[in-house]
Amino acid sequence: MGEGKLPAHVAVIMDGNGRWAKKRLLPRSAGHRAGMKRMIGLSEHIFDRGVRYCTLFALSTENLSRPQEELDGLFALLREYFPENAEILRNKNITLKVIGDRSLLPEDVVSVIEAGERRTEGGTRGTLVLAIGYGGRQDILAAVNRAVREGKEVTMEQFSAMLSTGDMPAPDLLIRTGKELRISNFLLWQAAYSELYFTDVLFPDFSDAELDKALEAFSRRDRRFGRT
Ligand code: FPP
Asked: For residue 6, what are the CA distances in angstroms to 16, 177, 218?
């Protein structure tokens, strides 16, 4: 890495697990397992680079319409890896937070998530946010409905604070792996001025070196936020 600017908040759309498995003639579940392992590796490495907030898109609201067998596999991975990952994060003084609609997840998965959040509470070195059962439009709509219920008009700052990422700065850098060039209902409001970085690399192959390339690219960007 050069001496350039560093993003405080990096968000990642982790795409390409299925294709990674297909290329190896493996079932999709093997791709998700490889993705899960990579997700853990990445979440350890990124804070060592000085990033303060990292938000990973693990499962969108729309992903929850995938075949039950695939979803069961993903939930099994969460049950298997979440406690261990929370322990690693606690030892690294990193707070783990999950955003998304928990009512869409199996109850025991919610318990595992909540235990992980409690275990890492108060970590001051950084915050890892996992978006599970998350949708950007749903996040915005929930905040709008809350404002309507409270019968008040809100400023942009107040509205930002009502979103599920309310206590964090907006992402400076948004990475998408796996070749597709879209945002797919991730942090729609929050990403208004994020720098976008797309790579063909499939998520299980998105190594620490690939992350460093993205950080390097960010350091060369000229951010003007609409000004001259
Ligand atoms: C996209 O790959 C990835 C996902 C839908 C989930 C991301 C999941 C992980 C990184 C594993 C850990 C997370 C959980 C929730 C256990 P894809 O299946 O869309 O790949 P494709 O586009 O190549 O088919």
From this structure: 26, 20, 7
